[in-house]
TrEMBL record:
<feature type="domain" description="SIS">
    <location>
        <begin position="33"/>
        <end position="184"/>
    </location>
</feature>
<dbReference type="InterPro" id="IPR001347">
    <property type="entry name" value="SIS_dom"/>
</dbReference>
<dbReference type="GO" id="GO:1901135">
    <property type="term" value="P:carbohydrate derivative metabolic process"/>
</dbReference>
<dbReference type="InterPro" id="IPR046348">
    <property type="entry name" value="SIS_dom_sf"/>
</dbReference>
<dbReference type="InterPro" id="IPR050099">
    <property type="entry name" value="SIS_GmhA/DiaA_subfam"/>
</dbReference>
<dbReference type="InterPro" id="IPR035461">
    <property type="entry name" value="GmhA/DiaA"/>
</dbReference>
<dbReference type="GO" id="GO:0097367">
    <property type="term" value="F:carbohydrate derivative binding"/>
</dbReference>
<protein>
    <submittedName>
        <fullName>SIS domain-containing protein</fullName>
    </submittedName>
</protein>
<dbReference type="Pfam" id="PF13580">
    <property type="entry name" value="SIS_2"/>
</dbReference>
Length: 187
């Protein structure tokens, strides 16, 4: 295989996933939910592991600054290590939601596998509090996190960088929908 053929196959994964069935509906639904959160003065809470944590942090900043929708992430090392030490790593996100979540907030969880115990436990906890859950997952269509979503973004791929790249695109698309423009000043 030549690199050109490999790249054609690789970018085909992005093209197939970018506007896969149901994605536009999920984008519109998440945008509308963000408008509700903004109007009520509530917030988005974003979390993920590894690169998904980075996507969550990027999203929290952009939703707050550009999208004018308050957002926080749970990526502070002190928070992660404190809650993980006291409650177990599999529970740190759920405990963060317990401590920071309020009625009307929305939890956004990002996980390629959709089976990260800490994300699944956070979604389960959020549901007991009536907090809506938005998920960005990949891999198997029946992953545990996806099953708990009020709004679901899923790509049927195990290509981690492709899945994470699409998650970032979809998340920041909603930010741009809140702004209402494709191009704008960020200052």
């Amino acid at each position: 295989m030549t690199w050109h053929a490999w790249l054609d196959d690789y970018y085909d994964l992005y093209q197939k996933g970018l506007v896969s069935p149901g994605i536009k509906e999920s984008l519109v639904a998440f945008h509308e939910l963000c408008l509700e959160v903004r109007a009520s003065g509530n917030k988005l809470m974003l979390a993920g592991n590894g690169a998904s944590a980075s996507i969550a942090s990027h999203g929290a900043v952009d939703f707050t600054k550009q999208g004018r929708t308050r957002a926080v992430d749970f990526n502070e090392p002190n928070l992660i290590t404190c809650l993980s030490n006291d409650y177990g790593y599999e529970n740190f996100m759920a405990k963060a939601v317990e401590f920071y979540g309020e009625e009307g907030d929305v939890l956004v969880l990002i996980s390629v596998s959709g089976n990260s115990k800490n994300a699944v436990n956070a979604a389960k906890y959020a549901k007991t509090r009536g907090i809506k859950v938005v998920t960005f997952t990949g891999s198997a269509p029946d992953n545990a996190l996806r099953a708990l979503a009020d709004i679901d973004f899923w790509i049927g791929s195990r290509a981690y960088n492709v899945v994470e790249g699409l998650h970032m695109i979809w998340l920041t698309t909603v930010v741009d929908m809140l702004v209402g423009k494709h191009e704008y000043s960020v200052t």
